[in-house]
């Protein structure tokens, strides 16, 4: 899977935060990085809120997202090179100062880059990817690949990352496999729709199982 960098200009305002969080979750879904969506949304909230609080309402800023090796990199660009984010030792009773502490808690690393015309506050999240263009290594994926390898006789198993043709062939193989399982369920007097509903519910609740 090719995960191309993207950026989005925004105005520093509390009403923008929810929209930026939605955009982040949508892109991570496209990238197959559902597992880090919650942490990424939290980082977006805190980095943007930091601009709102310390740089000012109405500031023109930019959210940039890319891959840094197997880490997800989130950047917020703003024009103020003086208001630097600080990691405070904020306790649970503090009214403020917890933003960067939360980022520090979930991110593998974070920092600030100063340029002549802007400041870049960034953080990187571990994704569990096997390679920048690979997939997340988890038990469900390994079991599915082993099953597809046995089903199609391919070695190695077809991967959607192997270009447009590879993706089409991999998807068709999965469709055929699911269809055969549905035939098996019907032949044994099972409710295929009910089984599909249960499988979808389990996928939503535990996508890494």
Description:
By secondary structure, the chain is of the alpha+beta class. 46% of the residues lie in helices and 18% in strands. It has six helices and five strands; from the N terminus they run βααββαββααα. The chain has helices at residues 14-30, 37-54, 99-106, 139-152, 163-187, 192-205, and strands spanning 6-11, 60-68, 71-78, 109-114, 119-126. The protein has a five-stranded antiparallel β-sheet with strand order 1-2-3-5-4, covered by helices on one side. Helix 1 packs antiparallel against helix 2 (37-54) and helix 2 (37-54) runs antiparallel to helix 3 (99-106). The protein is elongated. 18% of the residues are buried. Mean pLDDT is 82; it is low at 92-96.
């Amino acid at each position: 899977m090719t995960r191309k960098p993207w950026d989005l200009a925004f105005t520093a305002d509390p009403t923008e935060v929810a929209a930026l969080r939605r955009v982040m979750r949508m892109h991570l879904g496209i990238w197959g990085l559902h597992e880090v969506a919650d942490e990424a949304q939290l980082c977006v909230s805190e980095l943007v809120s930091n601009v709102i609080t310390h740089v000012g309402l109405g500031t023109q800023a930019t959210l940039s997202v890319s891959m840094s090796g197997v880490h997800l990199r989130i950047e917020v660009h703003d024009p103020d090179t003086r208001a630097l984010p600080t990691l405070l030792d904020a306790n649970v009773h503090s009214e403020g100062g917890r933003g960067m502490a939360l980022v520090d808690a979930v991110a593998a690393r974070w920092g600030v880059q100063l340029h002549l015309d802007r400041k870049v506050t960034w953080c990187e999240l571990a994704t569990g990817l096997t390679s920048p263009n690979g997939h997340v290594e988890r038990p469900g994926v390994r079991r599915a690949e082993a099953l597809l390898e046995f089903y199609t006789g391919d070695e190695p198993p077809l991967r959607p990352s192997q270009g447009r043709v590879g993706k089409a062939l991999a998807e068709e193989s999965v469709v055929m496999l699911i269809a055969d399982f549905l035939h098996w369920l019907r032949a044994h007097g099972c409710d295929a729709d009910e089984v599909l509903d249960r499988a979808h519910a389990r996928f939503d609740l535990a996508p890494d199982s």
